[in-house]
Amino acid sequence: MTPTEAAVQRPRVEGDRELEILAATLAVLADVGYDRLTMDAVATRAKASKATLYRRWTNKVSLVIDALVHSKGPHEVPDTGSLQGDLEAVFCGMGGLVDPETVATFGAVVTALTRDPAFAEAFRRDVLGPKIEASRLIWQRAAERGELRDGLDLDLFEPALAGIVLHRVFIMGETPDPGLITRVIEQIIVPSASRPAPSQQAGTPS
C-alpha cells in the first residue's frame, strides 16, 4: 500500500471530534497567539495525535482559519429598520466587539497579518470577507431607506466603527462595552453618514 492509498483509507476527522480540535485550536491561539501556535500544541490540547490533525488540515494556516470560521458569531444580519439599530445589534452582540473572545482572537492574530502572507490572505478572504459582506448589507439597507447622505464612501465608513473601537482597546487599553459602541455609533458614525434633514438641505430661512 502506498502512502497515498493509506491516506485515502484513513478516516476523516469530522463531527464532534472536528469541533473539539477546532475549540482546542482557539484555546491555544488565545494562550500563545498565532505566531507561537504549533500543530503539536493543538494536538496536545485536543488529546489527539499530530497525524490526526494532518488528516484534515495541511498546516496551521488551514487549521487556524477553519477554527476562526467556525467560531461563534451571528449567522444572519439583523434588520432592525435603522442604521444605528443594525450596527448596535451586530457590534454589541455575540461575536461583536464587546465579546471578549472576539477581541482576544483579533489580538492573537494581528501580528501574523503583517508577518505571514499566506495566513493574511486566508484570513482576509475567509474570516474578514463574510464580515465585510454582512457590514455592506447593513449599509446597503440604510442607503435604500434613504438614511445615507449622497456620495458617502462606504469603503471608508464600513470599517470605521471597528477601527475606532479597536484603537481604544489595543492602544488606549480600554475594555469595550455596549456603552462605548453606542457612543461611537451615535456621536461619530451615524451623524457623519446620515443624510441632512430637509431643513438643513434647503437651508434655514432667514
From TrEMBL:
Pfam family, one: TetR_N
Keywords: DNA-binding, Transcription, Transcription regulation
Classification of source organism: Bacteria, Bacillati, Actinomycetota, Actinomycetes, Propionibacteriales
Listed InterPro entries: DNA-bd_HTH_TetR-type_CS, Homeodomain-like_sf, HTH-type_TetR-like_transc_reg, HTH_TetR, Tet_transcr_reg_TetR-rel_C_sf, TetR_C
Highest taxon in the source lineage: Bacteria
Example GO molecular function: DNA-binding transcription factor activity
Gene3D superfamilies: Homeodomain-like, Tetracycline Repressor, domain 2
PANTHER family: HTH-TYPE TRANSCRIPTIONAL REGULATOR RUTR (PTHR30055), TETR-FAMILY TRANSCRIPTIONAL REGULATOR (PTHR30055:SF148)
Keyword Transferase belongs to the record: no
Protein name: DNA-binding transcriptional regulator, AcrR family
The keyword DNA-binding is annotated on this UniProt entry: yes
